[in-house]
Batch of 2 targets.
Target 1
Amino acid sequence: MPQEWSNWSGSLRFTPDSIETPRDERHLAELVQRAAAAGRTVRVVGAGHSSSALVKTDDVLISLERFQGLVAHDSNTHRATLRTGMTLHEAGQKLLDVNLALHNLGDVDVQTVVGAVGTGTHGSGKRLQNLAAALVGARLVTGTGDIIERTIEDDPQFFCAARCSLGALGIFTEITLQLMPAYQLRRREWCTHVDDCLAHLNELIEQNRNFDFYWYPRSDEVKLRTLNIPGRERETLPYATVVEDETGWSGDVIPKTRELKFEEMEYALPAEAGPACLREIRERVKEKHRRTVGWRVLYRTVAPDDAYLSPAHARETVTISILQNNTLPYREYFNDIEPIFRAHGGRPHWGKLHSLRAEELRPLYPMWDAFLAARQQTDPTGTFLNRYLGELLGIVKPVVMT
Ligand SMILES: Cc1cc2nc3c(=O)[nH]c(=O)nc-3n(C[C@H](O)[C@H](O)[C@H](O)COP(=O)(O)OP(=O)(O)OC[C@H]3O[C@@H](n4cnc5c(N)ncnc54)[C@H](O)[C@@H]3O)c2cc1C
């Protein structure tokens, strides 16, 4: 009996013909082969924390929740291979047992590692790339149901496509990550006035390993978050008051639990456009949305990388997110702010809400066609192409004669 599926926030709902949880790679490959032969669409879902319709399908939805555990690790190269059903939290615990850790994390750690890699999920830090940048090896089931394995040493171009691949290249069953020795961080949160934060923005970004801030639209208060290797941090900020101070393993202090559900739009901007874009958003929010929007506006930084579809592709990046409680109206607010992001050269977060399609996206990504060519190689029959991805990438799914 088909069951309705819903994402974390409840904004994406659909009823696939079947939801499959394959027991192993061979079973997964058979499911894909069968679907491909019948011209059906297969989408793979991680923890369902994306709001864009990446995983939507009327046909087969696959979860790799049974693909658990650390396959191997190497303490000399600081690499580890994981099965892809694992969340960032589960993977972080297993990696800590062998004294390894990811270079960064985002706000929460409940997503799967592979889902985070698939959409360019990032934390904050001028010198820290998104999580996908850690991907250096992969086993995957292609759109024809074949199992292939790649390493960055053998095929670096493949990884430019595989990082941030939106589940369009294939279903990863194991991924190898470039990690670092486990490390501790001191996390502090500070309250201050938005003008003080903006006056010191460059030094805050430069002087902290991880730095971001929230602006609360109903006031002019901001919350700054700084994370640094203990002993390498500035003791005080004369214009801000510390409201939280904790030190621990990176995986324990970077992510936090988010109980309240929300909707979010986030754009990645050229770093130099960040302050002006924020200024315009603040003016618009004060003018039109202050009474209806109490949720924070979040400002982060991300280092450039070479993944073809990474929102931080080849540019120093600032990301700005606007959020709204998922039980309150958000469309009017998001629709009003989106043109501001776009006017500043923004690229949307692949897992969050936005309205762009291929004709608007292609000019933002210089290696767009290289991604399409890689996708064509691993999924020539479009088994992983749902309607949304077809529109997003500007590709028509080939018709299969059954
Ligand atoms: C509360 C919350 C906090 C968040 N915080 C941040 C943040 O701090 N920074 C940030 O950048 N983003 C953040 N996000 C966005 C989130 O990280 C992304 O949407 C992420 O992709 C979700 O991971 P997931 O495991 O839920 O994957 P899903 O949403 O289930 O899937 C995402 C993509 O990965 C693909 N995929 C899943 N499994 C596989 C596989 N085995 N092989 C190939 N492709 C696969 C899917 O097909 C899909 O295209 C947040 C979202 C929420 C709801």
Target 2
Amino acid sequence: MKITDLKVDIHGRQILKGVSVSLHEGRVHGLAGESGSGKTMTGLAALGLLPHGARATGSILHNGRNLLELPAKELNKVRGGEVAMVFQDPATSLHPMLTVGRQLTEHMRHHLGLGKVEARERAVDLLSKVRIPGAAEAYGRYPHQFSGGMRQRIAIAIALACSPRVLIADEPTTALDVTVQAGILRLLRGLCDELGLAVLLVTHDLGVMSAVADEVSVMKDGLIVETGPRAHVLRTPDHPYTRTLLSSLPDHTPLPTPTPTPASAPAPDHPAAPSPDAVPNPEPGHPGDPTRSPRPDDPVVPAPDPNPDGPVAPAPDPGPERSVAPEPDIAPTPDRGTESDPAPGTASDEERS
Ligand SMILES: Nc1ncnc2c1ncn2[C@@H]1O[C@H](COP(=O)(O)OP(=O)(O)OP(=O)(O)O)[C@@H](O)[C@H]1O
Ligand SMILES: [Mg+2]
């Protein structure tokens, strides 16, 4: 998806003043910036969900079509189909009176025209994919029977129901307890790699950025003031506003240059390549490698994670799996020394054991 010179005004007030951003398969593009700078509006525009009274110019190209020019009916097919969104608060994005299975299958039956049995199978498969323990039983439960982290996983499963190519995640971890945030980010990163999704990750948290984004754009007052590879923007920012954002991080210390190793040696155009235990680029031939063709023995369901919402600690050996660990100097989530999602009285505690 390529957004070019997107300008949005609502009742005469200019909200976006010429935003350009490109999303690519298997890449996470982080969008940071102060409150009211237009991050959500950019995501909504990409989904064709601008509020009433909004006028948009520029282009949002996806699959050769400009979404800004699509008739409502066509746009409806794109929304929730090719382009999906995960919102900040899973409590409001899930219907409290409908089972998880119903919410997943209605979506699929509407968009994909699947029969009941097929839709159920796919729903259980998706619940496993987002690492809901006991997916078959979870299918018949209601949202309130899950903890916050698990509810956000379910919201992500619903977003994936129709195999989107683009996923807009607007502050997907902000409403969650810090102890479960890392698990959700790890899941998003894994899905991006595994499914080749193009992800726009909206967050005001630069620590989150450093943990998962490949590219980062920084917004201010309806404009992108800086964009580039994560390591460049977060370590050697060009724009004074990015520097202000970085210096406002708690315990901000100057960013060290990582020790060069064959895997992390700085490329000439990337003065500070990310450390290998941050988010390494997929190794050639690994399922995350965008150039690799799918193989019949590729896993459909990721390896079970006994504690999917636990904080992400840097793995001693990154191994073949991509880990999502924040760069050491920009930690989004303080380690509280707990490994469980603490919501009491929810199904997740027993399910996770
Ligand atoms: N429905 C609406 N009608 C009119 N103005 C709106 C509407 N929604 C948002 N705005 C305005 O558009 C601007 C950008 O809002 P947006 O929600 O995109 O900011 P944001 O960067 O996502 O902020 P936050 O970090 O607080 O979520 C704000 O000034 C906001 O007041
Ligand atoms: Mg917002």
